[in-house]
Design a protein that fits this description.
Blueprint: E1 52-56, E2 64-67, E3 78-81, E4 86-89, E5 113-116, E6 119-122, H1 127-136, E7 144-146, H2 149-172, H3 175-186, H4 195-208, H5 210-217, H6 220-233, E8 237-239, E9 245-248, E10 254-257, H7 264-271, H8 275-287
Antiparallel strand pairs: 1-6, 1-7, 2-5, 3-4, 8-9, 9-10
Helix pairs in contact: 2-4, 2-5, 3-4, 3-6, 4-5, 6-7
Amino acid sequence: MANKKPAAKKKAAPAEPITDGLPIQVETVETVKPAPTKPVEPAKPEWEIKDRVYFLKNDAAPLTHTIPGKHTPKHSLLYYDEETGVQKEIRYATNHSSPFKQDQKGEATLGHIVFREGVLTVPKQKQNLQKLLSLYHPLRNRIYVEYDSVEEAEDDIDVLDMQVDAAIIAREMDIDEAEAILRVEVGSKVNSLSSKEIKRDLRLFARRNPQLFLELAQDDNVHLRNVAIKATEANILSLSQDQRTFSWTSTGRKLMNVPFDENPYSAMAAYFKTDEGMEVFRSIEKKF
């Protein structure tokens, strides 16, 4: 009997899902693309109802100073509105809430804008004048500024930081540099001070005027100018009566001519930086 081939195995059909006789529903997920977003524009700062103070920028302010409160041929009080593209005339009318003339219907009672001893305080009840001064007046930030407590605090922090920096440098400064810087402040009086007095007065100077102190501390010419002054006071150098010529006192030999309209000691400090002047400087230092 011929050998029979084994019957091929049938593949099992995939199992039917159990649906209890109900039709199969296939859910489709729809991909929704996000709508393009518009860039968020920064919100305009809201107008705050409060009392406001304004200062003239000129430190030497007169007893009273009046700025124009209406448009005239001599004083242009116009404000260009960028949103509407319209140039508007402004004026201070005490009986109208708007600072714009076109919004002031009926009779207008014009008021004066007067700074007294450089200061103008406007209470919160006068919103028309506040907005005219804070937002629209063409002289804003030119001859007067509004007091800003935040900016004032930032300025105070800057001054405090400078005072700290100046105090540290003053504490570590050697006596020769201290004398050179203090001479700028007190002149020849520094010659009569002891070392401790110089260090004390230097720290007081650094605290009182930190900006000037730091500028002087970084100025190489301050030390050189001090050497020139000390050399002249010690009769090592001679400065002519017209303050135009430096010479060696011992020999009378001329060292340099002072350029016209220049401080003689500043000129000598510049001379010390030249090749010839460096030799003179080293010679003077040996004589102290």
